[in-house]
Amino acid sequence: MNTGLAFRSLLTKLPRAASWLSRVSLLVLSAALTIGCGGGDSGAGGSGLEAESSGSGEAASIKSYSAADLPEVGEPLRAMDVGRLVISAPTGWTPVGNQPKALVWLCPGEPTELPRIVVNSIPAPVSGFDRVDETNGARFCSKLLVALDRLKGSMVEFPKPLLIGNIVWSRHVRLAKVGDGRAAIQSLQTVRGGRLYSIDLYVKVDGDGDTAYQNAIKKHRDMGYAVAASATFPKDEGGSAPSEEMPAEEMPAEETPAETPAEGSETPAEPAAE
């Protein structure tokens, strides 16, 4: 008797139970669809560098650095390279002129010591680039790597485009022996008017391994970036250049350090921080 009553009671509750289960299933399905459709928005609000790498096209992959976020620089130096280039030295760094195979050195201390920034220009070793910009930066870096084949063995970071200020530069890092010590060289290079301009930051490396050179570069990296951000090309841009140079020390040519490529891996390490 009691079993029959219980069975009939269960039958009367089944439709309501089924209806309740259906509503729960619909709610779960609706939540899943909502999460699936809205998941893509989480990346859109990321940092600027993440947004750059997630975009489409070559320009979207170039990391950028604003001049306002870099170390301060002084007044522009006199135009160099027959009036083609004007740069500024970082505050506290002294321009050292009359250097063989260089337009100018920029030094925070004694010219014979590191760190040091060496600015130079040569006829562009790659063709097809009147200037480097966001649309051709990666292609320029690829061709530059081929042109710099003799340095490839000492490179620990291969050429990669960076937008510094309003100019796209190729950046690579290589190791070398300077004097009796070991140095890392961060090289920023761009092309204007058929000439290759280089801003090379030399830093002393103590110790072995990737961490040693990465830490040495990172300590002074932004000084090189600040000089690159200050660069203007008066002849290319139709502007005028300063007529007088900032006071510069002179250093005997025999004290110019020779750069000897150091033994390095053919496969560069991943950049620690650009």
UniProtKB/TrEMBL annotation:
- Which domain of life does the UniProt lineage start with? Bacteria
Biased composition, Acidic residues: where in the chain? Answer: 246-257
Residue ranges with Low complexity bias: 258-274
Region of interest (Disordered), residue spans: 231-274
Spell out the protein name for this chain: Lipoprotein
User: Source species, please?
Assistant: Pirellula staleyi (strain ATCC 27377 / DSM 6068 / ICPB 4128)
